[in-house]
Amino acid sequence: LEGSRFCFDCPKGQYQNETGAQECRKCTAGFVTNQADLSTCRACPAGQFQPRDGEDECIFCMIGTFQESTGSSACRACPARRTTSILGAFLSEHCVCEEGTYEPDPLDPSNPDKCVDCPEGMSCEEGSRLA
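Structure (tokenized):
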């Protein structure tokens, strides 16, 4: 009918929080909606991210990265010679020494985040520390 207006649900990845609005809004990077008909977007949890606007799912941080904050558009890389052993790492403490390296003294404040080569003739698994 001429002059009639129809309401419709916002698609996944979009929302509308104003009554009478004619368009849906895209969720911004770091926020998603994974169902239609929502008035807000939810923040990606720690350990996940979303780099694009208007998306419906968060992405787990990849191996070697982590994210401690919610609502993030990217994950942070572990320090040099460190990696994570899980997808979705949400603490910097999840970054451990890579295979072939070890942490000589985790309590020594002069060597934070330092991983050194495994001594010749020895094997160091991922996450090894001085015993």
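The chain has a mean pLDDT of 86. The CA atoms of residues 2 and 77 lie 56 Å apart.
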